Amino acid sequence: MHSWPAPSVPVVAGTPVALSLYDTADQAVKPVDITPDPRGEVGMYVCGITPYDATHLGHAATYLTFDLIHRQLLANGLRVHYVQNVTDVDDPLFERAERDGVDWRDLGARQVDLFRSDMELLGVIPPREYVGAMESVGEVIEMVASLLDANAAYRLDHGDIYASVNATPQFGYESNFTREDMEHFFAERGGDPEREGKRDPLDALVWRGYREGEPAWDGALGPGRPGWHVECSAIATNRLGASFAIQGGGSDLAFPHHEFSAAHAEAAYGVPRMAGHYVHAGMIALNGTKMSKSLGNLVFVHKLTGAGHEASAIRLALFAVHYRADRDFSETALELAGRRLSSWRETLSREVTLEEATEVVDKMRTALADDLDTPRALTCVDEARGDHDGIIAAALDGLLGVRL
Ligand code: 5CA
Ligand code: ZN
């Protein structure tokens, strides 16, 4: 499917600093592997939305985190191959469409449109490839077939196919969860530990056989539809190779989703590790409570911009706290960010020497290269006494997507 229009990204002055990020698998901040792939690019895959409801500021914050990563890599002169999926075939869509008496395809298309316009409003650099589950069913069929060939998956009744959790010895390395935690979160986040006939309660569904009233695709596996985790394995590796630099999403995807996406890909290709880094953004809450539909405490990007809040202020409000922290969003945070922006506009309209301005840019680059230390990067700008030929302004735009 088509992506959204790209913002302009200015060239950033100063000295490149190699990007280090926290890796959930190794539980440490370490340099991003920028060894170019055969196309001379660094691969980044970020899990996209499930378009059954309007996406909120929490979702947007996660995509803004990966936009920061994208921008640091670009500022270091690297070419980035960015891929994102859309889970446009899944139970939540069917349930919501049924409840509201609409077609699930129309529901998905509408929500994806809204998401694209939010991303454009926020100046998020779009993925080069934006891929729907519906568009990639053939890829999933191929991957599940190779899992079956490798004896890494098996068939159950109803045409369902499960991948064996013990197909790869390294299973569990991504989340570092204990078996007990895995069982708990597997059940809580869409898994089916009770399904009869499974060899291990943690085995994950990779192909769901046709049930009446559900969409199905025909092919080598028999009629059915993709499981969730294998969808991301197939979309990512078919575009970025069996191993690539960064796999990302919100912290709620660390297990089971990213553990299983990696495991399926590793079993299918026989590689030890799908991604060099597994990067996870913290969850956004509103005034101390996690944003959730049932509580009705959702903040929407288009509502904020419609009420006159600038995208740059929304970015600054979110970047004031580190991306890995579960963070709070509030009117107060947004107001403070707006004030910060005005104060920068005033200060940076003064002219200082090239050396002084370059020093600020270098400090920002150093802070951001250190696991995206946005609070420190923003403080560097707070301390600036002025700009020189707009190089700090360009760095703010290039590195943070913040426009003066
Ligand atoms: N389609 C799958 C991934 S393949 C999915 O998780 N979709 S989603 O719509 O539920 O979430 C999209 C992204 O937003 C995920 O990375 C998720 O971790 C992130 N996310 C969801 N809620 C929040 C929140 N409150 N704060 C920050 N990120 C969030
Ligand atoms: Zn995913």
Please give a structural write-up.
Strand 3, helix 1 (57-75) and strand 4 (80-86) form a beta-alpha-beta unit. With 404 residues, the chain is of the alpha/beta class. The chain starts with 19 loop residues before the first strand and ends with a helix. It contains 13 helices and 14 strands. The relative contact order is 0.16. The mean pLDDT is 96. It has helices at residues 57-75, 91-100, 104-121, 137-149, 179-188, 228-240, 254-269, 301-306, 311-319, 331-347, 354-369, 374-382, 391-400, and strands at residues 20-23, 28-31, 42-46, 80-86, 129-132, 153-155, 161-163, 204-209, 224-226, 244-250, 275-281, 284-286, 289-290, 327-329. 41% of the residues lie in helices and 15% in strands. The protein has two domains: 21-26 and 34-285, HUPs (Rossmann fold, 3-Layer(aba) Sandwich); 309-400, Four Helix Bundle (Hemerythrin (Met), subunit A), CATH 1.20.120. A five-stranded parallel sheet has the order 5-4-3-10-11, with helices on both faces. Strands 6-7-8-9 form a four-stranded antiparallel sheet. It binds 5'-O-(N-(L-cysteinyl)-sulfamoyl)adenosine (5CA) and zinc ion (ZN). Zinc ion is lined by residues 47, 85, 232, 257.
